[in-house]
Amino acid sequence: AVEAIGHGIRVNAVGSGDTVTSILNHIHADGPSALADYGKHAPIGRAARPEEIAKVIAFLASEEASFMVGSIAMADGGKSVVLPS
């Protein structure tokens, strides 16, 4: 991020949690259902919809985030702030 900012490039990341997509279909008969079920373990009680993660990405790419450099925007339903049990 620091190396790129001099070239007008802002580097940020999204730490996404379980998101209901078909990415697991090659290993699970119903990938979206499996992800939805697993997402119930997040503090928010559900998995994300793809558009929720897309909105975070769109924000980071927008001028509204023009001062953000080297940030990780956690969109994980609270999983990153819970201590492991």
TrEMBL record:
It is found in: Peroxisome. InterPro entries: NAD(P)-bd_dom_sf (IPR036291), Peroxisomal_t2-enoyl-CoA_red (IPR052388), SDR_fam (IPR002347). GO terms for biological process: fatty acid biosynthetic process. Transmembrane segments: none annotated. Keywords: Fatty acid biosynthesis, Fatty acid metabolism, Lipid biosynthesis, Lipid metabolism, NADP, Oxidoreductase, Peroxisome, Phosphoprotein. It holds the Pfam family adh_short_C2. SUPFAM superfamilies: NAD(P)-binding Rossmann-fold domains. Pathway: Lipid metabolism. Its EC number is 1.3.1.38. The keyword Phosphoprotein applies. GO terms for molecular function: trans-2-enoyl-CoA reductase (NADPH) activity. It catalyses: a (2E)-enoyl-CoA + NADPH + H(+) = a 2,3-saturated acyl-CoA + NADP(+); (2E)-dodecenoyl-CoA + NADPH + H(+) = dodecanoyl-CoA + NADP(+); (2E)-hexenoyl-CoA + NADPH + H(+) = hexanoyl-CoA + NADP(+); (2E)-decenoyl-CoA + NADPH + H(+) = decanoyl-CoA + NADP(+). Participates in chain elongation of fatty acids. Catalyzes the reduction of trans-2-enoyl-CoAs of varying chain lengths from 6:1 to 16:1, having maximum activity with 10:1 CoA. Has no 2,4-dienoyl-CoA reductase activity. Interacts with PEX5, probably required to target it into peroxisomes. This is Peroxisomal trans-2-enoyl-CoA reductase. It comes from Gluconobacter potus.
